[in-house]
Amino acid sequence: MAPVVKPRIRLDKKEAKIGDVVEVKALVSHIMETGLRKDASGQTIPRKILNKFTCTVNGKEVFAADFKTAISANPYIQFKFKARESGPVILTWYDDDGSTIVGEESIKVT
Amino acid sequence: MGSIVDRRQALGLGLSAVASMAMNSAGSPALAANDAGEVIQKFTGGKTPAQTLVNLDLPEIAENGATVPMTVSVDSPMTEQSYVKELLVLADENPNAEVATFRFSPLGGVAEVNTRIRLGGTQHVIALAKMNDGSVHMASKAIKVTVGGCGG
Q: Looking at this predicted complex, what is its ipTM?
């Protein structure tokens, strides 16, 4: 039903040495409806936001966030992690409606 | 020069006064525009946060409240012995005080995040960090918003 959303994810490096700091930038299209706005007929538009975000590297959670309504539409998130092991870098956004948006990159640690 | 320093000091004092007011007003919602006091109370568990370690970077004036860039970082070694567990960001005049909670761990190793937030008007943004030893640190910043971003 909902259009498939493809997040845009960028790692500042694809290969890193152990202990190197890797910066992740991610942008995803989403309306982030606050539930406070009203439509033309005065009806409150129901809340629909991405309420949670996680990032795992090789299956281990390195960063997570709970978003509230004060996160801007098309949420942008930038964070860093220290490279420890190679593997997939998986970013997941959780929608109020129960659906998820998943993006994947990978990191090679030497 | 002297007067500038004085002004900054005065501003700093004003900020901490606002923050402590928000904290003390937990039981009296009439004082707070939103639930900031309660949220802070719940997060700190009644502890008084130290005004150290947390760096909150926001523009002084935001032309568009719908998307205000914000960077928060915490000075922490991020090792198993000493790390930041949670970072809570609040806006004291938004309809809902909570903006976001960021969770860090030694596995991540860096306590820094950048995102874009909505601000309904001119107000204070408060960042509270909870360490693994239970101590709480904070930073706050006044921000002037020309056009609010909460709709309605």
A: 0.92
